[in-house]
Design brief:
Layout: E1 2-6, E2 16-23, E3 34-35, E4 41-46, E5 52-55, E6 60-62, E7 66-69, E8 76-78, E9 85-91, E10 112-113, H1 114-118, H2 120-130, H3 135-149, H4 157-168, H5 175-182, H6 186-197, H7 201-219, H8 225-231, H9 237-248, H10 252-261
Helix pairs in contact: 2-3, 4-5, 7-8
């Protein structure tokens, strides 16, 4: 299976972490991962077979050719596929709202088709991607589409910046500290954060800690669970096991081993 990941164009770089993709050989069976809750959002465009997935209540569905995944409080288990071909756009934390007028609350925890978000223009893009034979051509079309929809002004720049700071700190910043940096009172800060992201600051803080810990364990086979959880702000192993079980419904040891043995969508940082 072939894979790639690249930095976006300069115009998109403040808002998008990377564009990346997978493509399997004809008939090559690919074990796909279970997607976990996190802080960002991923926009997928399939030119191969879209994902078949099982949601947290056991329902099997097929994604659209273009769809957004923005998990905060649930998981999404992708089923094996023998015709993988997709390009994904990984938005930075807090930056999805620069590209869509839809509220954060309407986008989280269930796949949304690109058509639902952007209408006929999304379907036109998907048709163009299907008719394009090169990754360079597909990447050019996707970035053009996003640049045309980029809103230069944030709906709440203070909260947007605070979310970025919390993510870079791996969830280590106290809510009072973040609020003080914005110049807002604690209650006003929490109200604006909830309005902007459909989550409380504490929700996002916990997701930052969880996401960074799981990413470390997935990318570094030599990393020990105890070392990783202490590095990323958990009090002790019991605290992490409880948090992991609440978010995923499994014990971390078994899940992390399976994650390392199969495929996952965690990527190393781009220079």
């Amino acid at each position: 299976m072939k894979s790639f990941h690249i930095r976006p164009s300069l115009a998109l770089r403040p808002y998008i972490d990377r564009l990346w993709g997978w493509e399997s050989s004809v008939g090559e069976p690919v074990q796909l991962p279970t997607l976990l809750p996190g802080t960002g959002a991923e926009l997928y465009f399939h030119y191969g077979q879209p994902f078949d997935f099982v949601d947290s209540i056991g329902t099997v569905s097929r994604s659209e050719a273009g769809h957004l995944v923005c998990l905060r409080g649930t998981t999404m288990s992708l089923l094996p596929n023998t015709n993988i071909g997709f390009i994904a756009v990984r938005f930075k934390v807090g930056m999805l709202g620069r590209f869509t007028p839809m509220s954060a609350a309407s986008l989280i925890d269930q796949p949304r088709s690109a058509e639902t978000i952007w209408g006929a223009a999304a379907n036109q893009l998907i048709d163009q991607l299907m008719g394009t034979q090169t990754q360079v051509g597909r990447l050019r079309l996707i970035q053009k589409f996003l640049i045309e929809r980029l809103q230069q002004d944030s709906t709440d720049g203070l909260i947007e910046q605070a979310m970025q700071q919390q993510y870079r700190a791996r969830g280590a910043l106290s809510i009072d500290n973040l609020a003080a940096k914005t110049g807002l009172g604690r209650r006003q800060f929490e109200r604006r954060w909830k309005s902007f992201s459909a989550q409380t600051p504490q929700d996002t803080q916990g997701l930052c800690r969880f996401q960074h810990t799981v990413r470390r364990l997935a990318l570094d086979p030599s990393a020990q669970i105890v070392d990783a959880i202490l590095l990323h702000g958990y009090y002790d192993q019991a605290h992490f096991i409880h948090d992991f079980g609440k978010r995923v419904g499994l014990t971390p040891k078994r899940f992390i081993q399976a994650l390392r043995d199969k495929t996952h969508f965690y990527n190393t940082s781009l220079a």
